[in-house]
Amino acid sequence: MPVYTLPELPYDYAALEPVIDPQIVELHHDKHHAAYVKGANDTLEQLAEARDKESWGSINGLEKNLAFHLSGHILHSIYWHNMTGDGGGEPTAADGVGELADAITESFGSFAGLKAQLTKAAATTQGSGWGVLAYEPLSGRLIVEQVYDHQGNVGQGSTPILVFDAWEHAFYLQYKNQKVDFIEAMWAVVNWQDVARRHAAARERGDSLLLAP
Ligand code: MN
User: Manganese/iron superoxide dismutase C-terminal domain: which residues (predicted)?
Assistant: First the structure.
């Protein structure tokens, strides 16, 4: 019985047009995301086998594979829900996401400050990576992380609430080499209701994650 399963897309392949082409959404979810789910399950099996046999020759590679595939599965699971065909704009109190809007202003000075930093972080990834807006539980602030692959260059304990996939598979069929154009277009499909729910859940969990009782 596999531990991880590929979640259904919350919309059809064409729901994010014209920002993301249906063919990209289909391949990205059905092939790429599926491969990370399989990779995480396979790696857990291999680790169980290593424990059974007390055979630890591959432990470094297995732990790296677990971090890579599991983080890929988690980031993509967030990514699909972070987007909607009815998204975009700025989060505001009038839309019921005032706490998120306030947190963005407190942490980045303004929404424009967040937008500039997250756009730049995602668009300048070297090789494969992500731009991530995360809740950092020690300070209670929001931070931007520039993630290498799926799992590198992140601070422990932070929770991703808005993720921009900057791997070539996320845009190349449509945007070719213009990664910055893709990242800038992404803002038009951000589902702020979903981001606000993730922010609220991370704040609740953060109180018990690292702080003394
Ligand atoms: Mn991807």
Answer: 98-198
